[in-house]
Amino acid sequence: MTSIELTIRDFRPDDAEAVAAAHRAGREHLVLTAEALLWLNARQNPDEHFRTIVAEWDGRVVGAVRCGVVLGTTTEGVGYANGSVLPEFRRRGAATALLAAAERHLAGHGVAELHTWLDDVPGTLAFAAARGYELGRSAQFAGRDLTLPLPPEPVRPAGVELRPGADWAADPSPLFLVDADAAMDEPGEVPLDALEYEEWRRSVWERPDLDHELTVVAVVDGEPVAFSLAQTDGADRYWSAFTACRREFRGRGLTKLAKLESLRRAVAAGYRHAYTSNDTTNAPMLAINEWLGYARCAGERKGIKRLK
Description:
Structural class: alpha+beta
Strand content: 25-35%
Number of strands: 12
Order of helices and strands: EHHEEEHEHEEHHEEEHEHE
Largest sheet: 12 strands, mixed
CATH topology of the largest domain: Aminopeptidase
């Protein structure tokens, strides 16, 4: 008999399509392209120690985990590891081996606490608990059929413009200021209180799947104060990456306006499926998404493990 071998190794460029497929399998709400994976693995910040680890079963790529050190925070020693295995290859040891490899890699770079997002289903939660992970925050995914009518635009406050993110292509630093301010209040176990512009530009603004034309910015007196970032698969799927508003401009409906206009642009560009995700405690954004016509389609839980 020919033995079947599980191999755990580093990502190679020709793995991109298979790794993206494993990430999306059984998760229609996730939008990740092979192009974005190639970019993630080529874009390196030495402080992040980013690594994609691949599981290969009898020569076939069946899953992967992406891991690194959390940047943009004053909290030291926190890492992340997120991945998946094709459904038909689960319960064969691949996920266990991938997670163990990520833990070893990050522990070697000073990570004491590892965070991972888990599908909120009994099997996945039991898998994590058996490997020493405790449950943290919960989040929900929501989807919307873009072939159905969008709600009418609310009355726009005087002096508010809605402009595409492409208008800041040469210098996106004003948008970074919006992001950095809003991130301070983003729900999570690790505060994002030390974001840096150059890293934001590399990791957010220069993503190949970020659509600058579908990204919409709310401008008051010539100054960006809110935005809705849009990522796509270049075909028919749209992902709301982050919707943000500076603190002093909240309560005016600006994020609702930006997100609605972004969806309108997505419809005009031919996208048919929209997805988003929110922490389950983020009542304002959950209310906006419900008004926009999104409906919950899946959930996830944060898993946290002490490595040291």
